[in-house]
C-alpha cells in the first residue's frame, strides 16, 4: 500500500480520536490555562524520553528557530481556541477554527509549491459545508470570541505550513518532542498562576488528583502519541489533504457525543458528518492513485 494512503488513514484515525477531547475537557474541572499546560507537559515528557532512549535527541542548529517558533504558535493556537470556547458558543468556535483548511488550500501553492486540483478544492468545500452543518453557528457570537477563533484558525494553518518542512527533515518523533516541550514552557507561567484558583477541595469534592487519569489520556495519548503520528502523516501528504482529513475531528465529536453523552444528532448534523467523511474518502482515493 502506498505511503500516502497509509498516512491518510493514520491521519484520519488521529483526527477522529481528537474528537474525544471535548468529552475529557467537560469532566475535568480545571482552569483552561492549567489544562493546556498539563496536556502539553504530559504529552511532551514521554515523547522527549523516547527521543533520548532512541538516541535521536540531536536538534540541528538550523532547525532550532523553526521548532521554537512552532512551539510558540502551538501554545498560541490552543490558548486562542480555549479562549474562543469560553467567550462564544462551541459551534461558532469550531466553524471559525476550521477555516484553517481553506487557508491551507489558498497558501500552500505560494509557500510550499503544492498545487491543488479541482477535486481537492471540491473536498475542501464539502468539508467546510459539512462542519457548518454539524456545528450550525447561530446566536451567541461575540467580538472577542470571533477574534480568538480567527486567531486559532490562522495559527493552525501556520503550524502546518511551517511544520511540514521540519517534519520532513526531523521526523515526526523529534519534531513533536521539541515542539510540545517549547509550547509547555510557554504555557507554564499561566498554569502556575492558575494553581491559586483551582477549587482543590471545593464543596467537599475530592482533590483534583482525581482528574489524573483523564489528564493522562489527554496528555500522553491524545497529545504526545498522536502528535508523533500527526507529524509523520503531515510530512507525507499535501497540506490541503491534511486540512480536509482534519475535518474528521469536529465530525467525529458528534459521533462520540452520541455514544457517550446520549446527544443524538439531528438530520443536519448527520448530513454534515456524511459530507466530511465523503470528502475524506475523495482525497484518500486521490492519494492512493
Write the layout of secondary structure elements.
Blueprint: H1 3-18, H2 21-27, H3 32-53, H4 61-87, H5 90-97, H6 100-111, H7 118-135, H8 143-170, H9 172-194, H10 212-234, H11 239-246, H12 248-260, H13 267-288
Helix pairs in contact: 1-10, 1-11, 1-12, 1-13, 3-9, 3-10, 4-5, 4-8, 4-9, 5-7, 5-8, 6-8, 6-11, 7-11, 7-13, 8-9, 9-10, 12-13
Protein model, in words:
With 289 residues, the protein is an all-alpha fold. It has one domain (3-197, 209-288). It is built from 13 helices and no strands. It has helices at residues 3-18, 21-27, 32-53, 61-87, 90-97, 100-111, 118-135, 143-170, 172-194, 212-234, 239-246, 248-260, 267-288. The longest helix is centred in the middle third of the chain and has 28 residues, at 143-170. The protein is globular. The mean pLDDT is 82.
Overall spatial form: globular
Mean pLDDT: 82
Q: What is the element string, with H for helices and E for strands? A: HHHHHHHHHHHHH
**Beta-sheet strand percentage?**
under 5%
Distance between the termini: 11 Å
Number of helices: 13
Amino acid at each position: 500500500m502506498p505511503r500516502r494512503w497509509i498516512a491518510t488513514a493514520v491521519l484520519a484515525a488521529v483526527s477522529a480520536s481528537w474528537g474525544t477531547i471535548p468529552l475529557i475537557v467537560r469532566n475535568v474541572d480545571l482552569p483552561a490555562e492549567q489544562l493546556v499546560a498539563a496536556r502539553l507537559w504530559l504529552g511532551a515528557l514521554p515523547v522527549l524520553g523516547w527521543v533520548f532512549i532512541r538516541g535521536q535527541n540531536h536538534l540541528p542548529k538550523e532547525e532550532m528557530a523553526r521548532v521554537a517558533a512552532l512551539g510558540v504558535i502551538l501554545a498560541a493556537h490552543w490558548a486562542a481556541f480555549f479562549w474562543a470556547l469560553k467567550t462564544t458558543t462551541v459551534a461558532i468556535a469550531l466553524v471559525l477554527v476550521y477555516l484553517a483548511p481553506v487557508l491551507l488550500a489558498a497558501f500552500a501553492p505560494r509557500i510550499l509549491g503544492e498545487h491543488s486540483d479541482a477535486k481537492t478544492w471540491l473536498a475542501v468545500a464539502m468539508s467546510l459545508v459539512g462542519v457548518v452543518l454539524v456545528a450550525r453557528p447561530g446566536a451567541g457570537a461575540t467580538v472577542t470570541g470571533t477574534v480568538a477563533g480567527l486567531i486559532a484558525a490562522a495559527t493552525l494553518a501556520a503550524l502546518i505550513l511551517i511544520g511540514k518542512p521540519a517534519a520532513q527533515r526531523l521526523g515526526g518523533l523529534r519534531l513533536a518532542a521539541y515542539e510540545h516541550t517549547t509550547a509547555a514552557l510557554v504555557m507554564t507561567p499561566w498554569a502556575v498562576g492558575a494553581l491559586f484558583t483551582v477549587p482543590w477541595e471545593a464543596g467537599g469534592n475530592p482533590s483534583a488528583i482525581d482528574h489524573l487519569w483523564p489528564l493522562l489520556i489527554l496528555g500522553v495519548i491524545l497529545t504526545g502519541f498522536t502528535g508523533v503520528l500527526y507529524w509523520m502523516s503531515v510530512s507525507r501528504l499535501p497540506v490541503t489533504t491534511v486540512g480536509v482529513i482534519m475535518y474528521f475531528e469536529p465530525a467525529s465529536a458528534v459521533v462520540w457525543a452520541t455514544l457517550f453523552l446520549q446527544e443524538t444528532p439531528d438530520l443536519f448534523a448527520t448530513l454534515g458528518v456524511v459530507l466530511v467523511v465523503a470528502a475524506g474518502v475523495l482525497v484518500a482515493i486521490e492519494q492512493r492513485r
